[in-house]
Shikimate dehydrogenase (NADP(+)) (Ciceribacter selenitireducens ATCC BAA-1503), 285 residues
Amino acid sequence: MADSRETVNHHAFVVGFPIKHSRSPLIHGHWLKTLGIAGSYEKIEVAPEDFAGFVANLKSGALGLCGGNVTIPHKESAFRLADATDALTDELGAANTLWLEDGRLKATNTDGLGFLANLDDRRPGWDRDAKRAIVLGAGGASRAIIQALRERGFQEIHVVNRSLDRALELAHRFGPRVHGHGMEACAEVMQGAEFFVNTTSLGMAGSPAPTLPFRTLAPNAVVTDIVYVPLKTEFLAQAEWVGLATVDGLGMLLHQAVPGFEKWFGQRPVVDQSLRELIIADLKE
Ligand code: ATR
């Protein structure tokens, strides 16, 4: 009789379109090597029209893969095509981590967890006594972050976005503690806030960031960014200039990868300085 363990493989993937610039293989490759696990993690480029077929082949076992990460533009489709999800992921409507379990495709979203773990790691106590948070941007990353901040007990979460309608839609979706604003309200809502996060692409190469009144935030405020190229973004530099504590976005990328690795390869990896340095060196190339 065949041993059922024979059907368990340790081959995982990251799927996206395009996928060339993904750093995920470097992260998982590092953990596989340091933990001595005989597994693999590869990039797979799948166009939107082919994604449902990819998922069907994954579920049937035809691809010989045990699960993987999902990135732009497939996160919403991955959520819809999965057989099982959890409540937090249902609220987001988007998944970034898939795994096969008992013949079913399970899906979750680890962005919020990665966001929180980065802050807990780099700035322990960052959310102690914090009441008001400013979230710049209203896209997919913003949703996961709003959810995470709400979970940590922030009383007021102000979403500020270029398109007011998207900010208002999130306020409506997430309930009374979440408020939506257009960019013109940014200076006003920043006053006295204890937390600020940029979830937009502002500050990435070719997308200059506006100057914001960071000096009006609470003196103990923490400022973070999900952009990690460059590591010290324009927003983080502005915040540092007025003496505020900052946390860069690289750790979110590293921490969001942990739950997937544990599912596919059976061991919990650590986010340490050697991994950070490996990715920083790669970003400089
Ligand atoms: P993601 O899923 O990565 O969050 P997204 O859903 O495309 O990406 O959302 C991108 C966010 O960055 C949005 O809040 C977007 O603002 P709009 O909703 O007005 O489009 C914001 N953004 C992108 N480029 C911007 C720019 N040049 N100025 C201001 N906001 C910008």
Q: What stands out?
A: Residues 204 and 229 are 6 Å apart (CA to CA).
